[in-house]
Known about the structure:
heterodimer; A: 324 residues; alpha+beta; five-stranded mixed sheet; four-stranded antiparallel sheet; disordered C terminus; B: 246 residues; mainly alpha; 2 domains
Amino acid sequence: MSYLVMEVHPAYAVVLDEEGRFLKAANLRYHVGDTVRDIVELRCPKEKRPALWKPLSGVAGLAACLCIVFFGYYQPNFVPYGALRIQINPDVELTLSRTNRVLELEGLNADGRVLIEGYDYGGKDREDVTEELVERAIDMGYLSGGETVSITVTSADADWQAREEQAAREDLEERYGETIVIQIGPTDEEPPATEVVIPVMPPEPEPTPEPLPEQTDPPVVPYDTDDRPGSGGATGYQDTDYGPDADGITDYEDTDYGPYSDGVTDYESHNDGPYVDGDTDYEDRDDDRDTGDDRWEDDGDDRWEDDEDDWDDDDDDGDRDDDD
Amino acid sequence: MVRTEHDIVSQVRSAKTDPEAADALIRQYMGFIRSETVKFLHTAPENGHEDELSIAMLAFYEAVLAYERNRGAFLPYAARAIKNRLIDHYRTEKRHGNVISLHTPLGGEEDGGELLDTIPDTVDHAEDYAVRTASRREIQEFSEKLAQFGLTFSDVADNCPRQERTFAACRRVLDFARTQPALLKRVEDTGKLPMSELSAGSGTDKKTMERHRKYLVAILLAFTNGYEIIRGHLCQVGPKKGGDEA
Lengths: 324, 246
């Protein structure tokens, strides 16, 4: 490419290239009318660029600042992230932000509303508020030594929830651990829980009454057991008595004491034992006690023979033969 | 001192648009440009480094064009521009580094001839001089003709389309105008572009033509009668370019 020099200035020359462009280039001692080959072309400053992005950059910067403020400061501090419920007798719920700031304090029952009345939670964190509320509860007489404070944390974030529960319990235990009992999870939640369940699932109420009779039965059943040994259950009862005379006292105590508290099943097993499974029980005892065999044979054989002659005889004979 | 600073900023601002003011500014700051070049070369530009001085002057002019007030004081800015431009120049020159200068002294003697002297001089100097004088005269005429319409070559160069697509559009205008001598005559007489005819004939947007009006006037004038040397220079590529366009 050759260039025709059209005009010369001290710092530059205007040259015409072969395609018809007029260019400014370094004036390397050119004269007008020269035809030159290699030129050092002028670099034109680009001016329009800044004008385009300058206003946009301001907007973008502002948006970035707002994002930082929102996600870095506002969201962790002012957006509810979970709730912490304290149940003493007063029932209060703290709405917490991610950074443990207390955003809202609400009494869930009448005592709770009394407890938080006039209490300023503004700007305090979870630790301060829980401690001060427990302190207040003690001062107002809701909480005394040995009673239970239960803490429930709910949040969509399971990790955060577990962490908060742990931290809240540790904080309270550190401060009040000697006087009160801190418990994680709801204390009296179950009645409301069943109340909640009943309307939701209609079939549920029927199963729930059933457990209740079972729980009321145990007091009745022991009397029955007392009655049964006295009247008709003499066989079973005496058998167990006779058995333990050797070394079965523990068995008797267990079985007797069992039924009073929760031994319905035990008792039933004993009831079932004599009637159905009792044979195997006796077999076991027979097997175990070699020395008592004789006595058992004398006493038990007759009676058992009366009940089940063939079976007992065969078993006794066979076992003894095997054992011997 | 403050006043000097203010002066140079206003001088630079006027030099941005006025080529004569730019020339004056460059002449005024020739010492500064020279000193910056010497700082880079560590020798006087006269010792075979005239090109570097020219490039430093070009860099100073570029700095004048690109300077904004928020870029700091002008002279440090210009000094940096000169230095960067010289570094760039050296990097491009390095690509053909295994080239020996024609001015390399022959042998070791101080006053011996140069390599240039050993090359047979095949150029007809008289012929060359005649051609150069003729073309100079023609360019002078062309320049005067442009001056009638208030144009200088600097204006035309500033107005020249830089984007390839825009340049091709202007080229289409030229190709169309060359087929219409009447239109060229009108341009020669009035210095005004017959916009609607050219736009309709070449398919180039009127707005594009308006934006490059000065350049189009100059290039169309070059194809009127009387500028054979310039046209000859352009026509070296002209037909091929025309083939590309079609």
